[in-house]
Specification:
The longest helix is centred in the middle third of the chain and has 48 residues, at 265-312. The chain has helices at residues 9-14, 43-56, 79-89, 110-120, 143-161, 187-192, 228-235, 243-263, 265-312, 318-363, 374-380, 448-484, and strands spanning 22-24, 28-29, 31-37, 69-74, 97-100, 124-130, 164-170, 195-201, 209-215, 221-225, 381-386, 390-391, 397-405, 409-410, 414-416, 428-429, 436-437. It is α/β, with parallel strands linked by helices. The two termini are 60 Å apart.
Length: 485
């Protein structure tokens, strides 16, 4: 029996270890990812777009990608359908993107097929399996054990070769408060995956799609795009933002309000006036209208009483009584309806004024906040809207964030200068020429000059191997035809 290999906490604390790497910066890590969504929502379109970006090394939604060979197992499609989608997505496609429409099952040699593929294309960064059900076989085992076993085979393969494998899967129709519980199957699937993505629309005809992300090395994120319905799966672009940038902006804004609530009474009153000025002005006019309406209702009551007395004393005819009483009743109903509307509006205005005071009282407790967590965000914030990045005339990039706080809603937009993940990386020495350079990702090995040369050499070698395979295939075919003669 093999002895357990252990490491003590002190050694581990100071041991320099390589950080997790991302094929798509801050979104898709190396390892196994589950990409789930309902049928025909656009999962395959999005996967094809992702494959094109990685094979060409171009950004996906403003997030940098690691350029390399890509394998896309389109097991529910035909080459004709893939070609049609390529025509609609791009004018140029890279020779580094490879497709297959059939493969073995997991139990029949899929991993061996993938190993053989990597021997031919060792520079691969991404493999997409669309869909999971196409590579599984029916099992009589425990459902959890079956799910965990199948997905673990793929995860072990991805971890051994330090590349990203994305498995496309479906979600259940049943609703759930936690979107990740909708993933079809047991928790053995999501439990084994390094990251899980769920693409969802509230209604199939909705203009808005949401992408939910969570993982071991990927913090929980939600991306919402209102252009989804207008442009569809092909042209949908994400209003992406580095989690670091968003956390820093929200943290700074919370501290700004907390400091203001504690130290600047004048600024607090200015915010109260700004947020409630319109409501207060309207509330005054509504209060006046309410008094007039109540006064008129009292007058109508007196008129009804007087009219009934005139009828009893036979001072007016039955016809005139019915005509006048109908007129008064109609006016009375209209006044009561308007009075109800005014009262509800006034109550909303009073609640908003109280909400401002409640918010300022609550946020005082967070002065000097150093870190954000889910409890704080849920206590203070309703939602956050992130706009698309905007390039200014001077070449700088700006991005707008709108934070909607509890009790008070939207106060004012924030403008940040987006950073890129590699700004936090330390310089490295090129493994070929030894020159120091700033890497574009955590897994970069070569300086830009060497990277281009090595990529060209590998590309030429890949083409040479491809020509050699074609030549051997032609020789084998010719020999086979000779034997048949």
């Amino acid at each position: 029996m093999q002895k357990l290999q252990t490491v003590n906490a002190e050694t581990l604390l100071y041991e320099p270890l390589e950080k997790p790497s991302f094929v798509v910066d801050s979104l898709i890590p190396t390892g196994l990812s589950l990409f789930c969504g309902s049928q025909k929502i656009g999962k395959s379109w999005l996967m094809l777009k992702l494959c094109l970006c990685v094979s060409q090394g171009i950004p996906l939604w403003d997030m940098t990608t690691m350029e390399g060979d890509v394998l896309y197992l389109c097991l529910e499609d035909t080459f004709c359908r893939i070609q049609d989608r390529l025509f609609r997505l791009t004018d140029e496609a890279s020779g580094r993107l490879h497709f297959a429409v059939a493969s073995c099952k997991l139990s029949d040699g899929l991993i061996v097929q993938l190993e053989d593929y990597l021997k031919d294309y060792p520079d691969s960064w991404l493999i997409v399996i669309d869909t999971l059900q196409k590579v599984r076989t029916a099992s009589k085992d425990n459902a959890y054990a079956s799910d965990y076993g199948d997905i673990s085979l793929i995860k072990d393969f991805a971890d051994r070769h330090s590349l990203a494998v994305i498995v496309v899967h479906h979600i259940r129709k049943q609703n759930d408060s936690d979107v990740f519980n909708k993933v079809s199957g047991t928790t053995g699937l999501t439990g084994s995956a390094d990251a899980t993505f769920v693409l969802e629309k509230e209604k199939r005809a909705s203009d808005t799609a949401k992408l939910y992300v969570t993982g071991r090395d990927t913090p929980y994120q939600e991306y919402t795009c209102n252009n989804y319905g207008r442009y569809g799966n092909v042209m949908c672009t994400a209003h992406s933002i580095e989690a670091r940038d968003l956390f820093n902006a929200v943290l700074a804004d919370i501290n700004r309000f907390a400091d203001m609530a504690v130290n600047d009474e004048k600024a607090v009153r200015a915010i109260e006036r700004r947020l409630t000025e319109t409501d207060q002005s309207r509330a005054k006019s509504l209060e006046k209208e309410k008094k007039k309406l109540n006064k008129r209702l009292a007058e109508l009551d007196r008129l009804f009483s007087s009219l009934y007395e005139d009828k009893v004393m036979e001072r007016i005819t039955e016809r005139n009584f019915e005509m006048m009483s109908g007129k008064y009743q109609k006016e009375q109903l209209e006044i009561e309806a308007r009075l109800k509307e005014v009262t509800e509006t006034l109550n909303d205005s009073y609640e908003k004024s109280q909400g401002v005071r409640d918010f300022l009282s609550l946020i005082r407790n967070y002065q000097g906040l150093k870190e954000l967590d889910a409890t704080i965000i849920n206590a203070l914030i309703d939602k956050i809207l992130v706009s698309e990045r905007e390039k200014l005339a001077d070449g700088t990039v700006r991005q707008e964030i709108k934070i909607y706080y509890k009790f008070i809603g939207f106060v004012g937009e924030l403008h940040i200068t987006p950073t890129k993940r590699w700004t936090a990386l330390k310089p490295k020495n090129c493994t070929v020429c030894g020159v120091e350079y700033v890497p574009s990702s955590g897994i970069s090995k070569y300086c830009p000059a060497c990277a281009k040369r090595i990529q060209r050499e590998k590309s030429n070698e890949s083409k040479r191997r491809s020509r050699e395979r074609n030549r051997r295939a032609c020789i084998e075919l010719s020999a086979k035809n000779d034997r048949l003669k």
